[in-house]
Every structure is written in structure tokens, then in C-alpha cells.
Design goal:
Layout lengths: L1 H39 L16 H14 L2 H29 L4 H19 L1 H8 L7 H29 L1 H35 L3 H16 L19 E6 L3 H14 L6 E7 L4 H10 L7 E6 L12 H7 L1 H14 L4 H7 L14 H4 L5 E5 L3 E3 L16 E3 L19 H6 L11 E5 H7 L1 H11 L11 H7 L4 E3 L5 E2 L10 H5 L3 E3 L13 H8 L7 H5 L5
Helix pairs in contact: 3-4, 3-6, 4-6, 8-10, 12-13, 17-18
InterPro entries: GAUT, Glyco_trans_8, Nucleotide-diphossugar_trans
Keywords: Cell wall biogenesis/degradation, Glycosyltransferase, Golgi apparatus, Membrane, Transferase, Transmembrane, Transmembrane helix
GO cellular component, one term: Golgi membrane
Length: about 550
């Protein structure tokens, strides 16, 4: 029984093994037959073939095997033809996208369409169609080369067009180009602003030919007639505190004449007005000749002095003069000039001689210059007076020293814009949001000035600023510091500013103003003046004066 059982199991295993071998043999036989069927099956469809070749599935496999069997060059034909079809599709895709976006590139669209047609026309040429696509015989290699050359030429043109067209359709490329353009424009704008600031400052601070001519003519008149222009003795009215006193510090003859004329013409009682003009040594003679030739009207009084006549104004007393003469200050200016160049109008001002002129700092020494006066009105040379100003002497300044119009609005023209609040002394003493005022028309109570010791206060801060760490240039920052708590705000109608830079000031505001101020670089005596405001200044120019006509002021 045991032997019989073992024999039965062995026979069963043997039968299973043979069955498995038969199954494997059958599968290989079927696979072999199928392969032969594919290899030896012909495809006679070439006579109906146009320019479109099968590219997928069994058809492409059949064609490939047939090409290998019949002619090895046929594979090359298929590859060239397929490359042409791919580029036709790509060209048509760009053309369709352009039409969808409605881009205004009709020339490019026409070229796309023509190029797609050229690809199809090549395949449809009788020579190529008969020899390469419809013939079952061997392919002529010369015809194939010619066909390949024409296709490659068209492919090269297509690729060039696509590269050119891609810039129009690639959004990221467009964005980057736009960013580059914006950056380039901003760079050009910044450069133009710097050049404009430089040109404007040069124009504003240079002496115009007409002003130079006027000064020379006046000096020539003095030299020709020395007896006619002898200095007169001081008048007692110059020190009479009961009269209305004005101070003008300038080296510009024509500008001073306009201020004086506008004051007198608009004064109700001109004989009660005394105008003190201080100029530099070079222009004092010309200034005196002008007012000798064109005497002040209405009985008003005029005093003309040189800054050199105030002998107490020397480097031992005036900090800014001492600082300018010091090696440290000279080194600072040279360093600024070498390091920064002309990049900033503020730096240009810093290096301009006007900002180191003692005429600009006289406003800190009014009580000592006019010791017998109680009040004085300080006017810049670029203002025009349009109304009687005696009302300013009647304003109660509440014990303050300075009466001025404030210029702040919103966050603009606050103390922080004029003074360095990173300096510890400034930070602990002043409010950065305090409203700034400006020079141009300021009524000063000289008694309060002496009581508050404002000049000493100014000296203290000027000495602290020897290294330019508190403010950089000009006289407004030290003025804001000196009169920080001693300034009385005046009604804005007393003093309207901006006629030297702002073309948008309301004419109603200008007409209602007692004083209009051409602060800015576009001074009314320059060619760059704002035309809409120029006549407000020129109407006070003494155009009948012979030298004004000779020097061509263009009025």
C-alpha cells in the first residue's frame, strides 16, 4: 500500500510538469506567429497618403518596420516629415493665441500663416510626393537631401519667428521687461531731478548779467560825479523809536528798490516810516547812487549802511565768523565738496558763499545794531508789500520776541525737518512736531529780545553746531532754535509764501496778502521766474530809471 501510494503521487507530478511545458511552448508559438504576421504584412495605403503621416499606434510601427525592410532612407523621410508637422503645429498655436488675444500684430500673423502653408506645400510638391511618399521603391537620396534642406530652412525660419514672438506672449518676460523699464525711467528721473536742482540753484545764486550791469553803471555814475554823491549826515529819525522802522539786508540793488518802493507806495503815512538797508562793501556805493538818483517818495526816510560799519561784528564776537575762519570748518566744507559732489541742492547751498555771508546772520544782532529802537520789521529782499503794514506794530506779541507766520501743515514743515533730533541736546530740549515758521516778514520786539537774551541763546547753539551735527546750513534752523518759545504766530494773510516755486497759489490768497514772498529759486528778477506772479513784482520796478532800461532787465 505504501509503495502504491508513492507511485501514484509521482505520476501526478510528472503529468503536471509536461502540461506546463506544453502551455509555455504554445504561448511562444503564438507570439512568434503574431510577430511574423506584423513583419510580413504589407501596407498599401501610400497611394492615398497626403502630407499627414500616421504617428501613433500600430500604423506607425508598421510603417517603421516596412521602412527598415524596404529602404533605410524611408525612416529619415518620416523623421523629417514629422519635424515639419511639429513646427506647423507650433506656428499655428502661436497664431491662434495671437488671434485670441486680439494682438495688433497683423504682419506677424500673416507670416505665421504663410510659413505653415510653406511646410504643407513642400510635402505636396509632385517631385517629393512621387519619390518620397507614394513610391514603394528605393528613395532617391539626392531628392531626399533637397527635401531635407528645404524643410530645415523652413524650420530655422519658424524657430526665429517663435523666439521673436515669444516675447509678446510670455507674461513673465513682459513683467520683467516692464520692471526693467520702470527702473530705468526712475534712474533717469532721479538724475534729471539732481541736474535740475543743480541748474536751478546755479541760475538762482549766480549774478545775472542785468544785475551786474546795473551795479557797474551805478558805480560808473559815482566815479563820474563824486561831488554829487557825497554821504549825508545821519538823520535823527533813524533812531526815533516812535516811527515805524524796517530792516532789509541785501546786496541786490533792484530787489531792494522794489521792497522800498512797495513799502512806501502802500503806506498810509509814509513820512512815519524809516527803512534801514544794510549791504556789503562792494554794493554799498551802488545802492546809495540808486536812491540818490531815484529818491524815496512820500517823505519816508532811508538809511544805507555797509555791514563793515558795525564793527562789533567780528570773529571774536560772532561764532559763525569764527567757525568759518577755523581750520576745522574749512576742512568740513572741503570734505562735503569732495565726497558728495553736486548730488543734493542742500549740499550745494552749504557750499554757496551766500550761506556764509554775514548779511544773512545780521538778523541775530538787531538789538545791538539798533540799540535805541523798541520794534523793527525785518523784510527779505524777495518780498513785495501790498498793504500798509503799520498794523503789525499794533499786534500784542504777549511778551514774545518774534512775530511770524507759521508754515506747517500736516506733517510738513515741522522742527524735525530742519534740526537733527538724533542729537541728545536737541532731543531733550525741543519737540520734533513743533510747527516751523519762516523768515521774510518778521516783527521783532527788541525790548523782549534784550530781556530774553536771545542773541546769547543763539550764540550758545551756534557754538554747539561747530561740527554741523545739529543743522547743516542756512539761518532758519538756528532761528527756529533761538526763538523756539518766544515766537508769536501771526495771521497767514500777513505773509503769503511760495511765489518762487509754487505755481498753484490761489490769486485770491495772493491779492489778500499784506506781503507776498518769492521764496524759492524762481526769483522775479530772473528769467526762470513764474510768469503768473512776475507782474506783481515788476509793477514796483522803476522802469523809468535809465540804467534799468540800458541793462535789459526784460520787464
Amino acid at each position: 500500500m505504501a509503495v502504491s501510494g508513492r507511485g501514484s503521487r509521482g505520476g501526478s507530478s510528472l503529468r503536471g510538469f509536461f502540461t506546463y511545458r506544453i502551455f509555455i511552448s504554445a504561448m511562444f508559438s503564438l507570439l512568434f506567429i503574431a510577430t511574423l504576421s506584423v513583419l510580413f504584412t504589407t501596407n498599401p495605403s501610400t497611394e492615398n497618403d497626403d502630407s499627414n503621416l500616421p504617428t501613433t499606434g500600430n500604423a506607425y510601427v508598421q510603417r517603421t518596420f516596412l521602412a527598415l525592410k524596404s529602404d533605410p532612407l524611408r525612416t529619415r523621410v518620416d523623421l523629417i516629415h514629422q519635424q515639419a508637422k511639429d513646427h506647423i503645429s507650433l506656428v499655428n498655436a502661436y497664431a491662434a493665441y495671437a488671434r485670441k488675444l486680439k494682438l495688433d500684430i497683423s504682419r506677424q500673423l500673416k507670416m505665421f500663416d504663410e510659413l505653415a502653408g510653406n511646410f504643407s506645400d513642400i510635402a505636396l510638391k509632385p517631385t517629393y510626393r512621387a519619390s518620397l511618399f507614394e513610391s514603394d521603391g528605393p528613395i532617391d537620396e539626392d531628392i531626399l537631401r533637397q527635401f531635407e534642406k528645404e524643410i530645415k530652412d523652413r524650420v530655422k525660419i519658424a524657430r526665429m519667428m517663435i523666439v521673436e514672438a515669444k516675447e509678446n506672449y510670455d507674461t513673465q518676460l513682459k513683467i520683467q521687461k516692464l520692471k526693467d523699464t520702470i527702473f530705468a525711467v526712475n534712474e533717469s528721473l532721479a538724475k534729471a531731478k539732481k541736474n535740475g536742482a543743480l541748474a536751478s540753484l546755479i541760475s538762482a545764486k549766480s549774478v545775472p548779467k542785468s544785475l551786474h550791469c546795473l551795479a557797474m553803471r551805478l558805480m560808473g555814475e559815482k566815479i563820474s560825479n563824486p561831488e554829487k554823491y557825497r554821504d549825508e549826515s545821519p538823520r535823527p529819525e533813524f533812531e526815533d523809536p516812535s516811527l515805524y522802522h524796517y530792516a532789509i539786508f541785501s546786496d541786490n540793488v533792484i530787489a531792494v528798490s522794489v521792497v522800498v518802493r512797495s513799502v512806501v507806495k502802500n503806506a498810509v503815512e509814509p513820512w512815519k516810516h524809516v527803512i534801514h538797508v544794510v549791504t556789503n562793501r562792494m554794493n554799498v556805493a551802488a545802492m546809495k547812487v540808486w536812491f540818490k538818483m531815484r529818491p524815496i517818495e512820500g517823505g519816508a526816510f532811508l538809511e544805507i549802511k555797509s555791514v563793515d560799519e558795525f564793527t562789533f561784528l567780528n570773529s571774536s564776537y560772532v561764532p559763525v565768523l569764527r567757525q568759518v575762519e577755523s581750520a576745522k570748518m574749512q576742512e568740513h566744507y572741503i570734505k562735503n565738496q569732495g565726497d558728495k559732489g553736486a548730488n543734493d541742492a542742500r549740499d550745494l547751498k552749504l557750499r554757496n558763499a551766500k550761506y556764509l555771508s554775514m548779511l544773512d546772520y545780521l538778523q541775530f544782532y538787531l538789538p545791538e545794531m539798533y540799540p535805541k529802537l523798541r520794534n523793527i520789521l525785518l523784510l527779505d529782499d524777495d518780498v513785495v508789500v501790498q498793504k500798509d503794514l503799520t498794523g503789525l506794530w499794533k499786534i500784542d506779541l504777549d511778551g514774545k520776541v518774534n512775530g511770524a507766520v507759521e508754515i506747517c501743515f500736516g506733517s510738513f514743515h515741522r522742527y524735525s525737518q530742519y534740526i537733527n533730533f538724533s542729537h541728545p541736546l536737541i532731543k531733550e530740549t525741543f519737540n520734533p512736531k513743533a510747527c516751523a515758521w519762516t523768515y521774510g516778514m518778521n516783527i521783532f520786539d527788541l525790548d523782549a529780545w534784550r530781556r530774553e537774551k536771545s542773541t546769547e541763546h543763539y550764540h550758545y547753539w551756534q557754538n554747539k553746531n561747530e561740527d554741523q551735527s545739529i543743522w547743516k546750513s542756512g539761518t532758519l534752523p538756528p532761528g527756529l532754535i533761538t526763538f523756539y518759545s518766544t515766537t508769536k504766530s501771526l495771521d497767514k494773510s500777513w505773509h503769503v509764501l511760495g511765489l518762487g516755486y509754487n505755481p498753484s497759489i490761489s490769486m485770491d490768497e495772493i491779492n489778500n496778502a499784506a506781503v507776498i514772498h518769492y521764496n524759492g529759486n524762481m526769483k522775479p528778477w530772473l528769467d526762470i521766474a513764474l510768469n503768473q506772479y512776475k507782474n506783481l513784482w515788476t509793477k514796483y520796478v522803476d522802469s523809468d530809471m535809465e540804467f534799468v532800461q540800458m541793462c535789459n532787465f526784460g520787464l
